[in-house]
Structure formats: structure tokens, C-alpha cells
Amino acid sequence: MTAAQMEHEITLTVNGFAVSERVEARRHLADFLREDLGLTGTHIGCEHGVCGACTVLVDGEITRSCLTLAVQCEGKSVTTIEGISDSGAVADLQEAFRARNALQCGYCTPGMVITASVLLDAEEMPDREEIRDHISGNYCRCTGYHAIVDAVETTLKARAEAGR
Amino acid sequence: MSGDVPSPLTALDRPNSYIGRAVPRPNLKRLTEGRGEYVSDISLPRMVHVVYVRSPHAHARIVSIDATAAKAAKGVVAVVTGAEIAQVCTPWVGVLSHMVGLKSAPQHPIAVDRACWQGEAVAAVVARTRALAEDAAALVEVEYEPLTPVTDMMTALDPETPVIHESLGDNLAFERNFSGGDPASAFAASDHVIEADFGFGRHTGVTLEPRAMVADFNPGTGRLTAYLGTQAPHMIQNILSIHLAMPESAIRVVCKDVGGSFGIKVHVYADEMATAALSKLLQRPVKFVADRLESFLTDIHARDHRVKGKVGVMADGTITAFEIDDVTGIGPYSVYPRTSAVEANQVVNLTGGPYTCPNYKARARVVFQNKNVTCQYRAVGHPIATAVTEGLVDLAAQKIGMDPVEIRRKNLVRDDAYPCASATGLKFEALSHHAALDKLLAMMDYPRLRAEQAEMRKKGVHRGIGFASFIEITNPGAAFYGVGGARISSQDGAVVRLDAAGAVTVQTSATEQGQGTEAVIAQVVATAVGVPLERVRVISGDTDQTPYGGGTWASRAAGIGGEAAWQAGKALRENVLAVAGAILQAEAGTLDVREGAVVDADTGRERMPLTELGRIVYFRPDTLPTGFQAELMAVRHYVPRGYPFAFTNGVQASYLEVEDGFVKLLGHWVVEDCGTILNPQLVDEQVRGGVVQGLGGALFEHCVYDSEGQLQNASMADYLVPMACEMPDIQVGHVVSPTADSELGAKGAGEAGTAGAPAAVMNAINDALSPFGAVVTDMPFTPDRILGALRAAKAAQGA
Ligand code: FES
Ligand code: FES
Which residue pairs, CB below 8 angstroms and at least 24 apart, start in B4-9? Predict the structure, then answer.
């Protein structure tokens, strides 16, 4: 057995629930979430850190789960699309995606929603170009991005409005 | 954001019509919450995972395969070679009889004694988990004898180039020659003849979800269920049946959520056939999910054309003749069953299509090579034909000093000239090139942009404006594949049922991969029957459940599947009214169904909710008149018969800046005429997504092979696709010329964006470079190529 195949016991928090599992050292977080925990909302598009389909939050930071090993998440708090949906934290953003048809096949959407979520509480209201920059690490092959930018912008404006 | 567009047709003008309204799609909430059901998410009891060992050589004889170590590895269920799979699954040949002369060689699910491209599967390793299968795959020892690869398509036909398939005699898969009018005399009489060579890099679809399949052969029932993200479930059912020697009725193809398709997922893939065969062999579910490297090596590629183009023009701007000579390399096999000759054939068909010019000569040669296969990807042939045509038109305009808009105005087929035909005999029912161009110019404020461009030029900033008018094939009838002997349905069907609680279920043979097919079908049925949209549920993508039909490709779902649903919905309303008439003792013709209730047609007064009608029909049929049988389910099918294809037209404009060879896109405009617009938001988003895929091919996307046939950039880090920060906002407008072939009048819209965007960008770049006398015609337009063109122009001027 190689070191990569060696199993380790890990304890972490996933979507607010404590999780203890044995995993191989080589298991990346995306596979851990999908295969071991059945959280298939985290998608895999490239497994080399480029497309953003696998984006989750680790301790609140945007993270590529395909580039993160499960064992690196010992003691950390992971939030996936399932968790952020159940909490209702981005329900307005998700509704804006739906109303604006900002998803076609939907495969990029969980990653896109997670990435956009950290923009929603920005102090300064970002303009369209800044929104585009922010989501540029998330590829979408279907929409051409315009509708996604619209949906994020609408949500930001509505939040700014409500906060006023 | 898209507003509603009122339907231009009275037949569709039902009370509370949803047609032309931007209602959201039914599946989106689920997908925004990570509750999708993609094939890669599926897990079944007893399921095992297959990983393919793939040839590292572009061309090699397989001398031996030693699987001893792999078979002994942890978790391994089987290691299977091509010869073993061949016992369960027969090979295929990708030809169509109407493509006269098209030839190809038999292709096996797994290479039997020779690998013909880098990435072709040579053995399958099946294990309990994907990771264990990958571990074992590394232990399979394959001895290869490398053969000389044929990689350069331009020399593939040279006598000294080896022939890939000896039995075929040469590397020519297909050739088409066409001549219409009198091109020789027309060129001779032209004031100017302009020539240019165009290159179209090989690129691929990069669906964000890689290809994936779960094949579940159940010996208990003798049935095979294939969970597959496919655009054409019935086609796959038929093909699995033929090659696995099983009756079609024993095969079920289920297509749930699909993570992008764009034409990539409408073909027969060797590794998917192998996965189905493995399930039959092992008698348990087998799952295959391509990783991204495999996607780049095996998902069909597209384009890879070199076209010599020529245009004749008079000093007054009249275009006199077009000529093209196209060469394309398709890999070692013509892809099954749609073939790899279609793109070149389309280039011949479509070049010059928007213009009145009757003189046209074309040759296309389709050659084999030892690279991955190419086949139909979004907008098949259109981006090539459009870029060649529009590039030549702009060069002609430049030559005579005419504005690019003026030369188009002068030569585009007049809006009142229809019906008419192109030089190649394409029949146009009703197009709107001039109306579309006028609308585009207004949307982009052309004079203002030109003034801005001139202003910026003074400051040394080089901006360009480029146009592309185009035609697009949509709603194909049997002329595409059926006449060539392929069992690919050109008709679609819909079953519409009213249940006892007043809800409507639609089963459709059109399929959904994110275009919004299900939304459109629901809108059409809700309107036709007369129920609120929320009451309609659509079932698609399951050969056990849906009527037989073609599926979703070639921009046909809304136009063909939608019309079948419309007709079925109308038939159900008639049936409902017959029941209502019997219950209410009224003439059915005096009644209507609106908002889920039977009403008096004249006054709209409610007579009976559908829930009550459903209750009587299903639970108290004894109270209906003797001999009256209610039928609350209706089925209709549809195929366009008036025209072989419903042509659409459109025009695009690009505004951009070139600096240090880099292109910054500043604006993009599209006016599209896809006939009746069923859902404006969905149409606009199809157009936008299509534009960005076209821009990708024009600026970034390129499968780069070396001379040994090795793909140099098979990762997302090296193969560039458009990112959000590189793309502009895209403004979309419409002209509406419905097809009279159907009642709905809808044509397709899914590929128009991709058809026109590369040409518009090319012309805009060349407009920006015009002060330097530089011209680029080789896509993708990388900084290197743009700087190279500038250097060449400078050298030429210095000389
Ligand atoms: S799957 Fe992780 S970035 Fe693509
Ligand atoms: S919606 Fe398909 S990749 Fe974004």
C-alpha cells in the first residue's frame, strides 16, 4: 500500500453537522463529499482546479474541493451547496438565477452560487465588471455569463436596497 | 432582461396564452440547490466502475496485452480487451447512403489490434471503485508497435502519405464538388477578384459535465437500462439494440439532467458502447465517467478546416461569384451514425447563402488522419461558411472602398424576394436579412460607434467593428439523416393527459439539456389545453415513457417537439370539450377551456372546473350518456413536410479593441429571426450562450496536436475557454418571420449565436488592423497570430 492509499480518521463539520470518517490520504474533498457523504450537489468538471464546478466553502473561504484533500479538512467547517441552500442564506440569489434563467444545464450553478455568495455582503457595491472578475474562476459553457452577471447584480441591488 | 413578445399569430392567440412569455423553467429551483440528477451522480446496487486503458500513440499496432497484475489487484472485477468485447458488441461503420462516396472503416468499442488515435481505448478495467480501477489500469501492460501517424490533413491525400485503412485504398473519406450558375465567366467579368485562405482550428465542446454512463443489464429481466446524458435517446436505443444483438424493446435509455451537450452528446462513443457491452458481459451495472483528459482526447472535436476562398465584385459593390475549396481532417473514422462528412457538406451548402449571387463553385474534401474524431458540434459548418463568406465580403468591400454595411445592403437577398432558393438549391421560405440589419444598426448605434472609433484612432487606440449576416438550418426533416438510411427519427411526439385532479402531464420525445425544452413544451400545452402553467408537468428523456422521436439537436426541439405538443394539447382540449358538452348538455363548439375550467366560449362564464370534469370521467362515468367514452389522453406527432429545413437568419456585430495582439471585446449585438418566439428569455439565452461558444472558437479554443498526433493541451488549464471577465454583455433583438409549415411557426434558435459570432469578431479585428494593412483569417485569433499578421504587413509594406 502506498502512502496515498493509507487511511486516516478525520473529524470535521459539514453543513453544520459533525462528521467522522476514515478516508484514504489521496481522497480529495469533492470525492469525499460526493461519494462518502452523498452530497452530489458539488460537481466535478476538471479535477485540476480550473473550472470551479467543485467550489465549496472551507471555513468561509472559497475553495476548490478537487484540489483539497479530505484529510486537510480535519477540524474545519465545510459548507456545500446543500448546506447553503438549506440555511436559506442565498435564497434570494438562487431565486434571481431562476427568474433570470442564469443557468441552463445547471452543472456550473452550485459552484457559481457559492462563489457569488461571498460577494453578496461586500461593503462596496461591485459593478458588472467586478462581478465578472469575481466569477471568472467559475466556467460556464452554457449561458455566456451575461444572465449570471444580471442575476448577481439584481441580488446585490436588492440587498443594498433592503439594507438602506 | 427579456420582456414578453406578443404572438403575431391569431391561431396562438388563446386567452391567457403563455406563448411568447418569459416564464421561468420548471427545473431551475432544484438545480440551483444542488439537487440535480446527473449521470455522474447515479449509484446503483452491485454497481462497478470501468476505467479505460488508452493508447498513448496516435497510431500503433497492439502487439500484446498482459493483464495478469491488473487482474490480481485489489477490488478488480475484470480486465477486458477489444477482442473479448467484440464477442458481445459488433463494430459499426459511420456512413450515410445520401452522402455519395462517403466511406469509413469498421470501428470497435475497444481497439482490437490497432489503435488509430491517441486516446483510443485498448482495454477496460472494471473494479469496485473508480480509484481501484485506476490503480489497476496502471498495471495493465500493453506492448505497442508504433506506426507512422497521418496528422497533417493537407498532405493526407499525397501519394507518399501512408493510408490509414488499407481496405479503403486512400485517406479520402468524402469529396463533394458543386458548381452553380457560371462562376468562371462571372469571375472573368468581375472588376476585382479577391482571394483569401481561412483556417478554423480544431476545437471541442468542453461540456462542464464530462460524458458519463451507467449501463445496467439485468439478467433477471433480460433488459438493459442505459443512463446516459444523450440528446437522442431513441437513436441510442436503436444502436445498442443493433450492436448488442438485443431487441429494441429490451433496451431502455434514460436521460436525466445533462451537464451540457452542444452536439457533443448526440453521437455514438466507442467507450460508451463498451460500457454497455461490459454490463451485458458482467451482468451488473457498470459506470463510466470520463475524466477531463479523456474528454479532450475522446469527446468529438469539430471544425479543423482550411478553406481557400475567392470572391468576385464589381466596382459598384455587386458580388458576382463565390468559390471555395475546403479540406477538413476528421480523425481515423467517420463518427457513427451521423457521420463526419456533414460539416464539410454544410460548408458547401451554406457559403454565400445570404446573398443573391447565383455563381458559386465549391469543392470539399474530407480526409482521415490519426487524431481524435471530429463530428457535429453546435452550428455544424455554419461558423465556417459564415466566416468565409463574410470575410470575403468584407475584403471585397475594402477593395472597392465601400462600407461593410453598404455592400451587404446591396447584395443580401431582398426581404420581399421569398420564397426563393440559394445557388446550392437551399429553399428559403421567409427570411429578413434587411430588416434584421436595420434593427441591428439601430441597436448598436452604428454612426456613433464609427465616430468613436475614429476618435480613438487619433489617440492611437485601435478599435474595430465587424458584421456577419448568416442563414441557419433548423427543424430538419428526414432530409438530414433518415434519407441516408440512419434510424434517426425526424418526427417527434407528445402525449398529453388530464388527470382526475385537473393536472396535465405531457410525455415528449424532445429532450432537455438546459435549453429549456421542458419549459417550452409546458407553455405550449398549457396554452393549447387552457390550464395554468403550474398544472403542467413534463416528462422527457426515457424511451420507456415517451413517444418515439428524434430528441434535441439541430435546433429542432421547440419547432418540432413543440408543434407536436401543441397539436396534442389541442386534441386534448377537443376531447375535454366533448366530455363537457355531454355533461352540460351543450354544443362542444360553444365551450372552451380557460384557466383550468370549462367556460362558455362567448362570455368566458365558468361552467365547470376541470377537477369536476375529471371526477366525473374517472369516478362516475356511469353518469355520462350511454355509449359515450371519454378520452382524456391525446397523442400527436409532427414532422415538417413543406420544407426540408426551416431556415432562420440573423446578423451579428462585434465591437472590440486590439492591443499588443490581445483582443478586448467591448460589445456584441445579435438580431435573430427564429420565427415565432415561444419564450423570449429562453431564446435570448440560447443566443447568448451560442455567441460565447462561437467567440471561444474564434479567440481561444484550439486542440493543438503535434506532428506525432499527440494532443498538447488536453487540460482545462491549457485549453482555454471563455471566462466571464473576457466576455462582453450581449444585446439580442428579433425580427419575427414564422414558418407556415407549422401552426406555432417556431424555428430553431440554439445555434445561431455560434454560427455568426466568429465571423463578426474576425471582421472586427481586421477592421481594427486595417490602418496597418494586416489581415487575420486563421482561427483562433491568438495574440501570436495577430502580432504575426502585423509583422507580415509591416514587412510587406517595407518591401
Ligand atoms: S473540478 Fe475542481 S476546479 Fe474543476
Ligand atoms: S449552466 Fe451549463 S455550464 Fe453553466
Answer: B4/B680, B5/B677, B5/B680, B5/B734, B5/B736, B7/B676, B8/B676, B8/B736, B8/B738, B8/B745, B9/B676, B9/B738, B9/B743, B9/B744, B9/B745
CATH number of B39-147+210-258+264-298: 3.90.1170.50
- Say what the pLDDT of residue B9 is: 45
Q: Specify the pLDDT at position B483.
A: 83
Percentage of residues in chain B having pLDDT higher than 70: 98
Q: Which atom of ligand 1 is nearest to the CA of A47?
A: 1
Nearest to B296 by CA among B738, B703, B674: B703
Residue B692 identity (one-letter amino acid): V
The predicted pLDDT at position B442 comes to: 98
- CA dist., res. B181 & res. B189, Å (int): 14
How far apart are the C-alpha atoms of B525 and B726, rounded to whole Å?
Answer: 40
Please give the mean pLDDT across all residues of chain B.
95
CA end-to-end span of chain B: 53
Helix-helix angle B433-444:B404-411, to 10 degrees: 160
A132 close contact with B: CB closer than 8 A: yes
Closest CA to B389 of B416, B370, B362: B362
Q: Where are the CATH 3.30.365.10 domain residues in chain B?
A: 10-36+491-638, 301-478+642-798
**pLDDT tens digits, one per residue of B536-594:** 999 999 999 999 988 877 678 778 899 999 999 999 999 999 999 999 999 999 999 99
Cβ separation of B730 and A146 shorter than 8 Å? yes
Q: Name the pLDDT band for A33 (thresholds 50, 70, 90).
A: very high
Q: Which three cell numbers stand for residue A146?
A: 451575461
Residue-wise pLDDT tens digits, B463-512: 999 999 999 998 887 777 888 888 888 889 999 999 999 999 999 999 98
Collapse the DSSP code of B619 into the 3-class scheme (helix H, G, I; strand E, B; otherwise coil) and give the result: helix
Residues in A touching B730 (Cβ below 8 Å): 144, 146
pLDDT recorded at residue B12: 67
Question: Which ranges in chain B are annotated with CATH 3.90.1170.50?
Answer: 39-147+210-258+264-298
Query: A65 C-alpha vs ligand 1 centroid, how far in Å?
Result: 7
Q: Do A107 and B38 touch (CB under 8 A)?
A: yes
* ipTM exceeding 0.85, yes/no: yes
Instruction: Give the integer Cα–Cα distance in Å for B261 and B212.
Output: 12
Instruction: Assign domain B301-478+642-798 to a CATH class.
Output: alpha beta
How far apart CA A56 and CA A111 sit, in angstroms, is: 7
For range B52-74, the mean pLDDT:
98
Q: How far apart are CA B204 and CA B721, in angstroms?
A: 10
Per-residue pLDDT tens digits for B300-328 = 999 999 999 999 999 999 999 999 999 99
The domain defined by A88-161 folds into DNA polymerase; domain 1 (1.10.150)
Closest listed ligand to the CA of A45: 1
Q: Enumerate the residues of chain B whose CB falls inside 8 A of the CB of residue A107.
A: 36, 38, 207-209, 259-260
- If we measure between CA atoms, which residue out of B537, B483, B548 comes closest to residue B510? B548
pTM above 0.90, yes or no: yes
Q: What are the tens digits of pLDDT across the range B651-689? A: 999 999 999 999 999 999 999 999 999 999 999 999 999
Domain boundaries B10-36+491-638, corresponding CATH code: 3.30.365.10
CATH number of A4-84: 3.10.20.30
Phi, psi angles (nearest 5°) of residue B190 = -75, 150
Instruction: Give the dihedral sign, CA B274/B278/B284/B290.
Output: negative
Domain ranges of chain A: 4-84, 88-161
Q: How many CB atoms lie within 10 A of CB A20?
A: 8
Average pLDDT, chain A: 96
Strands (E), A17-106: 17-24, 55-58, 61-64, 77-79
Nearest to B762 by CA among B658, B618, B687: B658
